[in-house]
Amino acid sequence: xxxTSLPGGTWTLGDLTVTRFGYGAMQLAGPWVFGPPADHRxxxxxxxxxxxxxxxxxxxxxxxxxxxxxxxxxxALHPYPEGLHxxxxxxxxRDAQGGWPPAxxxxxxxxxxxxxxxNLGVDVLDLVNLRLGDxxxxxxxxxAEAFETLAGLQREGLIRHLGVSNATAGQIAExxxxxxxxxxxxxxxxxxxxxxxLIDELxxxxxxxxxxxxxxxxxxLQSSALSAVAGRLGASPMSVALAWLLQRSPNILLIPGTSxxxxxxxxxxxxxxxxxxxxxEELSTIG
Length: 287
Hints:
Layout: E1 10-13, E2 16-19, E3 23-24, H1 40-52, E4 57-59, H2 68-77, E5 85-90, H3 106-120, E6 125-131, H4 144-155, E7 159-165, H5 169-176, E8 183-185, H6 196-204, E9 208-209, H7 224-233, H8 237-248, H9 261-271, H10 277-284
Parallel strand pairs: 3-4, 4-5, 5-6, 6-7, 7-8, 8-9
Antiparallel strand pairs: 1-2
Helix pairs in contact: 1-2, 3-4, 7-8, 8-9
């Protein structure tokens, strides 16, 4: 059992207990998530600081770089501390132009899983999310064949738990008819609230919701209401946005990314802000 003083406490993904405040490794790769980091040692320091702070949920993908973030995680943290869980995703590759072409045919998915195993230096992946849709968002397309491939790899013992990313409600229902999932990873933040009903439905079923771009992504959140609440609390708008997510629902797990140790510490501290009912009501007007 994980005990933690991190904001939000813990959540259980299947049989894996993780801190609700986690860390997303995407920003450790080079610009636009392509190539190596400008500061290799600094990237290793961020990962080690995340573990030192008590974070037990690191989110990654072998497509980041590609291969870069997984290799950094292995260099910084392997052999992995007991209780640390690395979550990855498959379903997209990188091309020479830095694009994200889909790679969801059975051969590509199998290759991606083995790439993740090799680059992370593990025999079994804790949790694999199937990335659906494209860079513009979810797409209403069949997910069964791809998810059945991952379910087969799970039966082979290469994956402990499964989830989906960038998925529609229909796709989530489709994959759940094939095998259990423990999380959904979609874009969601104060200003993008399209999954409000889905979050509540997943919470009722004990399934985690992991928002990517919790702070707006490449264009940070901007809102007069957010700035007003932050000003009253003497906090940064990004701290308020993280704290709101943790208070939005107990099944929300945070994976904000950064390539800075100082920023990582600020995120952890900021997420622990206490928001009053009046603060929450004002913030709810943003979405």
